[in-house]
UniProtKB/TrEMBL annotation:
Signal peptide positions (record): none
Keywords: ATP-binding, DNA damage, DNA repair, DNA-binding, Exonuclease, Helicase, Hydrolase, Isomerase, Nuclease, Nucleotide-binding
Catalysed reactions, semicolon-separated: ATP + H2O = ADP + phosphate + H(+)
Lineage of the species this protein comes from: Bacteria, Pseudomonadati, Pseudomonadota, Betaproteobacteria, Burkholderiales
Full protein name: RecBCD enzyme subunit RecD
GO biological process, one term: double-strand break repair via homologous recombination
Length: 688
């Protein structure tokens, strides 16, 4: 019997048989289990409802439904459940396919019809705590009960969200840091020479704003100079510090690759500033004291297989300044841990593109915090301060109306892209603006030799061909294969120890030129299918063995779990290659910054093949040529932010490969909206 028929019998026909019979907890749990069998819910979602019923046999059926749907929402990245929307338009909230709507409505017709009735049932359950009531460690929290938009939380996410809000409010509204304004003005003028005819220099504004507070956000698209600005901010902090050699600075990012790129960018920018600084400051020596950029997991002392951290409020980080790049990837739980571990006096600077994909885990923290970034909303005090300290006049359209949020005074959006331009940038802007017609027109105008190109429809073999040959002057994996095949000569070289390192670097560099980015993991248009297809293609061409097994020369892998003992972290990408040691055992080589790091294949357990990867996993990386592969089975995963993020991973060429010609328009028209109460906390509607 098919899953579809199974659902028909047990939901539609079951309820139709006794239209007047009240729904029971047992019948609801049966339906939820069937939905899990059909893939509409996770078994984990149903397990929460089952557990609630075990703890409270008198629980009302709608509470069990709300709990399962809350767990499902959390699994999709939302931090809470909008109860009124769930009651009124369940399919819109849950994002289920239209074919599943009859099953949903069949149950919904048996449940209370108003939000007030659901609220009453939830408040009657001893396992649900109203946020205004005494805390007895209930697993569910009901917030904003008296508003038109009540929210239901899993306790853990309620705690994380209120803690993040409390920390940010405290840092955003705390008394400003004492600084010599005249000295700051002089240094800012040296770091940012006035360009003739230029408008407001938002990079200079960002430095001035960050200088006066303990929390700041610098956001902007690719090429707007976020790390360039952060480097000048760091130089400014050194220059205005009473004892710059005592300033403790840490750099961090969610992934190892992003952390290495941050460190490299900061170092390069600061070295370029040494001539500007002259003898007044030994930037090179100060930079050496900063040390390597670390992943957030490493920085916070993540403990394997637990939710506990080595650093926290009781044992804070030993830092005065912390700069975190790729902040869009920082999920709610991680942001809560980071803020909790930061000493009260320390400055936190978040860098990131607010329009990129949010993290896979729950929360869209940077997106929430940057709600006002586009509009500015600077109050008179901020406008005057920027004019005084930076010599910049914030244009009137960015001044605040009657209400000027405290967070907006610490947030600056960089608005001019200095590196990212041409057709790729135009396409990214059109997608980000939700302009379907412009996006399609840009792609229609371009051919195989242009920077952007689209192929829609047809067999997946087109993607396989692109992965090998590339298109026009845009490369695929062929240069990587050619570099890999040079091993035959390297192996026979009398000076193999000398030549080996150069060859490893050549292979890694060739591989990093191109990448297949997927919307989904499963299926022939997903990560699993394309990894298998590329591997089979390389085997057929003789680049790798015909039956390579798990490990083979040239296997690219992505680390999926942090392992500090091995020096590898989630998101790191390495390539399995013969070593220069006798017998040439395979090792996986990672390029960390400018240093090669090798790990025996026998010690790497938590890895996956990486010819293709999800768009989520690509954040923090850039490739000469990026191919974004859209599957018709992507469902609700397919959205505007996913396409925008895929486009902005490309430096020189971008190719869109879509299984169906309609997928691009569908994605652009579907911006991702994660449900969160963070802004309501920050605005005082929800109380911590």
């Amino acid at each position: 019997m098919s899953r579809k028929r199974h659902l028909d019998i047990h939901t539609l026909e079951m309820f139709a048989a006794e239209p007047a019979a009240p729904v029971t907890a047992h019948s609801v749990l049966e339906v939820l289990r069937l939905w899990a069998d059909a893939g509409m819910l996770r078994r984990l979602d149903v397990a929460l409802a089952v557990w609630l019923h075990e703890q409270d046999p008198q629980v009302q059926p709608c509470v069990l439904v709300a709990a399962a749907m809350l767990a499902q929402m959390e699994g999709r990245g939302h931090s809470c459940l909008p109860l009124a929307d769930l009651v009124a338009t369940p399919n819109a909230v849950l994002g289920w396919d239209a074919e599943n709507l009859p099953h949903l409505l069949a149950l919904w017709e048996r449940l209370p019809g108003t939000c007030a009735q659901w609220l009453q049932a939830l408040q009657a359950c001893p396992l649900v705590r109203a946020a205004t009531e005494a805390d007895r460690a209930q697993p569910l929290v009901l917030a904003a009960v008296d508003s038109a938009h009540p929210l239901l939380y899993l306790r853990r996410y309620w705690d994380h969200e209120r803690m993040v809000a409390a920390h940010i409010l405290q840092r955003s509204t705390a008394a400003g840091v004492q600084l010599p304004e005249q000295a700051a003005r002089e240094w800012l003028d040296r770091f940012f020479p006035v360009a003739s005819g230029a408008g407001c220099n938002w990079q200079k504004v960002a430095c001035a704003v960050a200088l006066r507070g303990r929390f700041s956000i610098i956001t902007g698209g690719p090429g707007t100079g976020k790390t360039y600005t952060a480097a000048r901010l760091l130089a400014l902090l050194f220059a205005t510090a009473a004892q710059p050699e005592q300033l403790r600075v840490a750099l961090s990012a969610p992934t190892g690759k992003a952390a290495a790129r941050l460190k490299e960018s900061i170092e390069t920018a600061l070295k370029d500033l040494q001539q500007v600084v002259g003898d007044a400051l030994d930037l090179e020596a100060l930079v050496q004291r900063v040390g390597a950029a670390r992943t957030l997991h490493s920085l916070l002392g993540a403990r394997p297989d637990t939710r506990h951290w080595g650093f926290h409020a009781g044992r804070p980080l030993d830092v005065d300044v912390l700069i975190v790049d790729e902040a869009s990837m920082v999920h709610l739980e991680m942001m809560s841990a980071l803020l909790d571990a930061l000493p009260p006096h320390a400055r936190l600077v978040l860098l990131g593109d607010k329009d990129q994909l949010a993290s896979v885990e729950a929360g869209a923290v940077l997106g929430d915090l940057c709600r006002d970034a586009q509009m500015g909303r600077y109050d008179a005090a901020t406008v005057d301060y920027v004019a005084r300290v930076a010599g910049e006049h914030i244009p009137a359209p960015f001044h605040a109306d009657a209400m000027a949020p405290a967070l907006a005074q610490q947030t600056v959006m960089l608005r001019e892209s200095r590196r990212f331009s041409g057709p790729i940038a135009e396409l990214a802007l059109a997608v980000n603006a939700g302009d379907v017609a412009r996006s399609q027109a840009l792609l229609a105008e371009c051919g195989v030799y242009d920077p952007v190109f689209m192929q829609a429809g047809g067999a997946v073999q087109r993607v396989h061909q692109l992965a090998w040959q590339g298109r026009g002057t845009a490369v695929g994996y062929q240069p990587f294969a050619q570099a890999l095949q040079r091993w035959a000569a390297i192996e026979k070289a009398s000076d193999i120890a000398v030549q080996h390192e150069g060859w490893v670097r050549e292979v890694i560099t060739a591989f990093e030129r191109f990448r297949l980015l997927c919307a989904v993991r499963e299926g022939e248009w997903g990560v699993a299918g394309l990894n298998a297809a590329v591997q089979q293609l390389l085997a057929r061409l003789g680049v790798i063995p015909k039956e390579p097994g798990e490990w083979y020369r040239g296997r690219p892998v992505m680390v999926t779990r942090n392992d500090a003992a091995l020096g590898v972290f989630n998101g790191d990408i390495g390539i399995a290659l013969p070593s220069a040691a006798p017998g040439h055992p395979l090792r996986v080589y990672f390029l960390q910054g400018n240093q090669l790091h090798a790990v025996s294949v026998a010690r790497l357990v938590h890895v996956e093949t990486a010819f293709a990867m999800t768009v989520h996993k690509s954040q923090g990386s850039e490739f000469e040529h990026t191919a974004l592969v859209l599957s018709a089975k992507a469902g609700s995963v397919l959205g505007r932010e996913l396409v925008y993020t895929g486009i902005t991973r490309a430096r020189s060429a971008f190719t869109l490969m879509a299984e169906d010609v309609r997928l691009l328009a569908q994605a652009i028209a579907a911006p991702t909206r994660r449900v969160s109460g963070l802004l309501r906390f920050l605005e005082g509607e929800l109380k911590a």
